Fold:
Amino acid sequence: MPVKVMIPTPLRPYAGKRDSAEFQAKTVGEALGHLTTEFAELRKHLFTEEGKLRSFVNVYVNDEDIRYLAKENTPTKDGDTISIIPSIAGGCN
Amino acid sequence: MADESTLWISGHLAEKIRAHGAETYPHECCGALLGRDSGMVGETDPEKVAATLQREILGLFPLVNRREDSPRNRFSVTSDDVLAAEKEARAHGVDVVGWYHSHPDHPARPSEYDRDHAWPWYSYIIVSVQNGAPQEMTSWRLNDDRQEFSPEGIEIRHRAAV
Structure:
């Protein structure tokens, strides 16, 4: 059973309007790599030009924030669900 | 994609956003916009849904600005807040379609910081609050290439059109 990546509503237009996609992956980074290879337009909304996850993009494996695990090296197992949740930020200057 | 989009909002909700901006002045206020894209209800043809650029705001979910270090020129909403807003939206059969925040003593124009922290598709309402009094209110959508925002027309309605 593969890993399931849930695609948030704002990014579905860049993922063939899909709400999820499944990949064989051993880590979160690998799953996100497959996701952004299959849907290349997603990449710039998730990663900086330097290839780092954007600061406001939060990734969870099941209910665990990968920031408190091993970040993109967090291992995944069959049947895990990866969620991408933004934190919203802005400011006047 | 967001070239000629229009946001419908009732006068009552528009006033609530302004009041929130005045209430938190000189700090930034923030909250979620709950609503739907017109044509979405009962519309199953994805082409028709995609062609729809009109969006209506049916509710607000005011949030606490989590930035304690620089709340006068920054706002932050945690992922937990985002999940809470999405839960509230689902309970009312709508979606989180965007976010609002205030610019205390600054114009209602998105900053570079706003652009760097935005996603496309969402509507971003900004209300300028000058000396504590809410002024211009604008709405923006980030372009697909992330290079700039496009302005989104705001249409104040007494009753949401369904």
About this structure: The mean pLDDT of chain B is 89. The radius of gyration of chain B is 15 Å.
